[in-house]
TrEMBL record:
Keywords: Heme, Iron, Membrane, Metal-binding, Oxidoreductase, Transmembrane, Transmembrane helix. GO terms for cellular component: cell envelope. It is found in: Cell envelope. This is Cytochrome c domain-containing protein. It comes from the Bacteria. GO terms for molecular function: cytochrome-c peroxidase activity; electron transfer activity; heme binding; metal ion binding. Its main location: other. Residues 375-515 form the Cytochrome c domain. Gene3D superfamilies: Cytochrome c-like domain. InterPro entries: Cyt_c-like_dom, Cyt_c-like_dom_sf, Cytochrome_c_Peroxidase/MauG, Di-haem_cyt_c_peroxidsae. The chain crosses the membrane at residues 12-31. SUPFAM superfamilies: Cytochrome c.
């Protein structure tokens, strides 16, 4: 047997070591170089999107900081919440970068990728998937907590006598002086209680009977019984300064507000007593306003209306008479016992029951159905409450602060609409208009007080660029907007917006989730 020499053993171990080093070198290279590159490549799409979203939020916060002192405390508080939600991607970005660093990715590589993702002001990387379903739901849980979000509270859909009375009044042409108009003439059911036109259509009356404000876009009637609703009309001339039972309702017409249950009740009867809306030209032939001299007295008009309704009962057109409905609703018998508040309260009761947002994906989501929203709707919701800053004004269950702001909407008409000024007479209120609620907004185009926004995309673009018409010229060669109009633009909109076109589509997707699925198929 051949003797094994120590040198042979050493040579064998040397060869094994060389082979081992040769085999381990690729593994070492993979761990040291290739694996971090692979890990970075695998997560690059998410990392770039998070970097861009975080950069967008930080730049937006920086630009907004200068305007904070011009906001009222409530707006400033909501702005802070929006900025906090906007920065949520920054936390996710930080977590992801720390994870990548622990897996060997270099800081230099991460910095280069961040610079690439944030150098384009259009943020092309935001078109990438920002978060998976679980991350989106987690962000919306934070949003819900910060903004105290809850589903819209609803009344029971009960067709009692008061409801039936209000419903019949809503569709009855006898409420108009010439018997040719109803509430549904302007609040058209197939247009989701708006009318689909840019401006309301006034009756053909003498100039002396025209309202003192320019024609406006017809507002919808959704959820107007909600406690947040503190003003009616684009300029808030009908408003609740305190509870109705405390005498807190205010209207420009000389009509006592005693007995009206809420703001909607008071607003409901106003078109009946206004010549250009439902009353018509006062004078011979007008059953409700037979005298042509002097402004028609609201109580006199409404007293004649009650008599007219009772007289119509005698013609036997309806099996359930007005007399019976008023008796069952209020315990009143004769026509002279019917008060203006009885009419307004019945109309408001019908409106607040019939036009509630009962079946919306957003409300289902808020009660725990996470599948109620699509991924894009969830992304849009995060944008709406976050970097879009929409909820600074469009807040609460019905998405309005019921305050008054200008977003730079131009008025092409010779007689410019002065907005809130008509209610207060204060110079600083010129060109300010009430924040419109947003439920079913996808069904009620055109938009703004003068119907200037034809599509929802145009309406959002106007918010993002409120100064876009500041340098425009009218047909006569003069500036379309005067300095007073430009100065009135809300400071919250002053900083340059960084919302991309793709994000506008996400916002529209979210607004679609506020749509009642019955709203585009209403029938009397």
């Amino acid at each position: 047997m051949k003797r094994v020499r120590p040198r042979d053993v050493l040579d064998l171990f040397t060869r094994i070591a060389i082979i081992g080093i040769g085999l381990s070198l690729p593994v070492w290279l993979y761990l040291a170089e290739l694996r971090p590159r692979f890990v970075l490549h695998r997560t690059e799409k998410d990392l770039r999107a998070l970097a861009a979203a975080c950069d967008q939020a930080l730049r937006s916060a920086e630009a907004t900081e200068e305007t904070r002192a011009q906001l009222d405390p409530a707006q400033a508080a909501r702005l802070d919440l929006s900025l906090e939600i906007g920065r949520l991607p920054c936390k996710s970005y930080s977590v992801l970068t720390e994870q990548l660093l622990s897996e060997g990715v270099s800081r230099h590589a991460l910095a280069a990728l961040n610079l690439s993702a944030t150098s384009d002001p259009a943020y092309p990387d935001l078109r990438a998937v920002l978060a998976d379903a679980d991350q989106l739901d987690a962000q919306l849980r934070v949003t819900s907590r910060l903004f105290d979000l809850a589903p819209l509270p609803l009344k029971e859909y009960l067709r009692n006598a008061k409801f039936r009375l209000g419903e019949r009044l809503f569709f009855d042409p006898l409420l108009s002086g010439q018997g040719d108009r109803t509430c549904a003439t302007c609040h058209v059911l197939v247009s989701a209680t708006a009318d689909g036109a840019a401006l309301e259509t006034h009756l053909d009356v003498s100039p002396e009977w025209l309202p003192g404000v320019p024609a406006r876009n017809v507002p919808d009637l959704w959820n107007r019984d909600h406690n947040d609703v503190s003003t009616m009309l684009w300029d808030g001339r009908v408003q609740a300064l305190a509870a109705a039972n405390e005498g807190g309702l205010v209207s420009p017409e000389p009509l006592p507000t005693t007995g009206f249950e809420n703001l909607m009740a008071l607003q409901s009867i106003r078109p009946i007593i206004i010549p250009a809306e439902m009353l018509g030209e006062p004078g011979a032939g007008n059953v409700l306003a037979p005298k042509s001299l002097g402004a028609p007295l609201p109580e006199a008009v409404l007293t004649r209306l009650a008599t007219r309704l009772y007289e119509d009962d005698e013609r036997g057109k309806d099996t359930e008479t007005y007399q019976r409905l008023f008796r069952k609703s209020y315990g009143v018998g004769a026509a002279e016992e019917v008060r203006p508040a009885h009419l307004g309260n019945a109309l408001a009761h019908y409106i607040e029951i019939a036009f509630q947002s009962r079946e919306t994906p957003w409300d289902r989501y808020l009660v725990g159905d996470l599948s109620a929203l699509t991924a894009d709707q969830k992304r849009g919701a995060v944008l709406f409450y976050g970097v879009g800053k929409c909820a600074v004004c469009h807040v609460g269950d019905v998405f309005s602060d019921f305050g008054f702001h200008s977003i730079g909407v131009p008025d092409m008409r010779e007689e410019k609409d002065l907005g809130r000024f008509y209610a207060t007479g204060l110079a600083e209120d010129r060109f300010l208009f009430r924040t419109p609620p947003l439920r079913n907004v996808t069904l009620t185009a055109p938009y703004f007080h003068n119907g200037q926004g034809k599509t929802l995309s145009e309406a959002i673009q106007q918010h993002l660029n409120p100064y876009q018409f500041a340098r425009a010229y009218a047909e006569g060669g003069e500036h379309l907007m005067g300095s007073t109009e430009i100065d009135a633009i809300s400071p919250i909109l002053a900083p340059r917006s960084m919302i991309t076109d793709a994000q506008i589509e996400l916002l529209i997707a979210f607004l679609k989730s506020l749509e009642d699925r019955r709203a585009d198929a209403l029938s009397p």
